[in-house]
Structures
1.
Amino acid sequence: MKSSLRVAVVGDRDQTFVPHVATDDALGHAADHLGVEVEVRWLATEPLESDLSGVRAADVLWCAPGSPYRSLRGALAALRHGREHGVPTLGTCGGCQHMVIEYARNVLGFEDAQHAEYDPYASDLFVSELTCSLAGRTMPVTLTPGSTVAALYGESEVKEQYYCNFGLNPAHQSTLHEGGLRVTGRATGRDDSGEARVLELPGHPFYLATLFVPQTRSLPGRPHPLVVGLLRAAL
């Protein structure tokens, strides 16, 4: 009998949004590769403000692209649960950005840490608009040797696709890195060299954030290594 995993995808699902469809597909590809069953449940963000039962029941969390979410507070509550309770958690694109905000607020003590999509004039923007939009672009990322992400890829430089216009504010990159949410993937382009593209939390079973959308590169028989790693961490 196959093992079964309950996957909660945090995000306000839009069937017309390519990364959302790709998220479901990528989970299926990884499950087939590992020989497990997955029960995927999308959790809209507004109900999460008062009810985390779907999050607590999950073996795996994935915070999906598609921000701004209907509820910033709901998404952050789900991510906090995953971080504090050792639930394997992946955040991609908007999910990555919200992992930054959650950590800044609840671990580093920046109570006013904000995301520019919600409040572009906030005094403490941890997520800011990118100088140059990455939406629709495929760009190189250099990975830190010895990191979880480098081990999953099995290489030190990869190319990945983006759908985003926002990212970690460079002014806060060292604050986050030195505060424990380590920057383990960096841009290698001429204009944005060194900017954070992957973050991970050492000591957690799997807590990984990517500004890119790995799910769009997953194929049947060729699952994305990060999604495989996410599910494997829960087995």
2.
Amino acid sequence: MFNKFLRENKISAAILTVIRLYLGYSWFTAGFHKITGGFDASGFLGNVVKNPVKGPDGNMVYGWYVNFLESFALPNIDVFNFIVPWGETLIGLGLLLGCLTTAAMFFGLVMNFSFFLAGTVSHNPTDIFLGFIILTAGYNAGRYGLDRWVVPFINKTIGKSKAKSAV
């Protein structure tokens, strides 16, 4: 019942729009400030590797994530210095415009969980909670945005290409 309300109701779409705009603004401004401010993730990632998240027993909780950062992210820091600020900016833009909303929110959640695994609590729990509401709502979260036109266009275009490949 709640899922139907979230995914189909116009009042829900209006509430989702407010949540979407809040998250979009947060993502966009965070990314834009990184782009214009000379962002470098190496210090943050190096600190995560040196001081990983530890459980009550003092052992590392997310050893696999620290290993990923140490063996892949830090050696490829230039890639991460590009994808983090631009990813945040594009996620924000997608949410602000209501364009490819579920894709933008999915990647936003991936980034939120990445920050969370690194030990940065901040506003991530709230963003994750609100992000899952947007993701669960699907198309309805972008109903009052560009998804109103973009999603039907994509469905129509993909439908035509599937029909051609079936022949």
3.
Amino acid sequence: MPSRDDHSTPPPGRVRLSPDERRRQLLGIGLRKFVERPAMDLSLDEVATEAGVSRGLLFHYFPTKALFHEAVVAAAGRRVLRTVRPDPDASGEEAIRQLAERFIAQIVRRHDFYLALVYGQSGPLADLDDPGATATSLRSGIAEHVCRALPATDPRVAHAWVAYVEDRALQLPPGSELHALTTHCVTALRALSRIS
């Protein structure tokens, strides 16, 4: 008969996961809850309960509430970058078109999520000492895709173009045609590149 200290069998309702799987699970729950409220208001007790783990185990993976929030914001940013990147075999203007189309679609489709990620309820959340950190980091990541697709593009122009595309997508009225905005944004990059 196993002793009370034997932890080889998880308690009822709790699934044994590898450390990587558990960390991904906790971040996934945090991401789902992210759009419901500001990240700093995210209840760790709710996350632990939904995961079927103790609050103490959650703190094993994320020693502070702030570290959990930072990890959720970082995971959300990585998700956006994966979603918008062009196909690996696309290059040049085709890659730019894919990037613009996917970035606009991401913002329009997940508008509240995007706003929560980049601007939060009280400003960007990745680094409270640097209130523009999340927006800057995300734009820089997308600008890198632009520079890979069109290597002659000045990185400052790429960054400005990403901010422009983001702003146009955020202001797009519901039900608008995304193809027209994509075409406009691709043309805008050409124009910006000529005057830089």
4.
Amino acid sequence: MFNKFLRENKISAAILTIIRLYLGYSWFTAGFHKLTGGFDASGFLKGATANPVKGPDGTMVYAWYVDFLKHFALPNIDVFNFIVPWGETLIGLGLLLGCLTTAAMFFGLVMNFSFFLAGTVSHNPTDIFLGLIILTAGYNAGRIGLDRWVVPFFNKTVGKTKTKSAA
């Protein structure tokens, strides 16, 4: 019942728009500041690997993630210095415009969980909660936005290619 309300109701679309704009503004400003202010993730990643998330017994909770940061992210820091600010900016732009909303929110959640696994709590739990609501709502979250036109266009375009290849 609640899922149907989130996914189909016009009042829900208005509420989702407010949540979407809030998250979009947060993502966009965070990414834009990184793009314009010079960004280097190496300090954050070195801190996350030096002081990983530990359980009550003192052992690393996400040892696999620390290994990923040490052996993949840090050696490829230039890639991450590009992906993080541009990713945050584009996620914010997608949410602000309501364009490819579910894709933008999916990648926003991937980034939220990445920060969370690295030990940064900050506003990530709130962003994850609100992001899951947006993701669950699907198309309705972008109905008051560009998705009103973009999603039907993609459905029509993809539908044509499936029909042609099946014939």
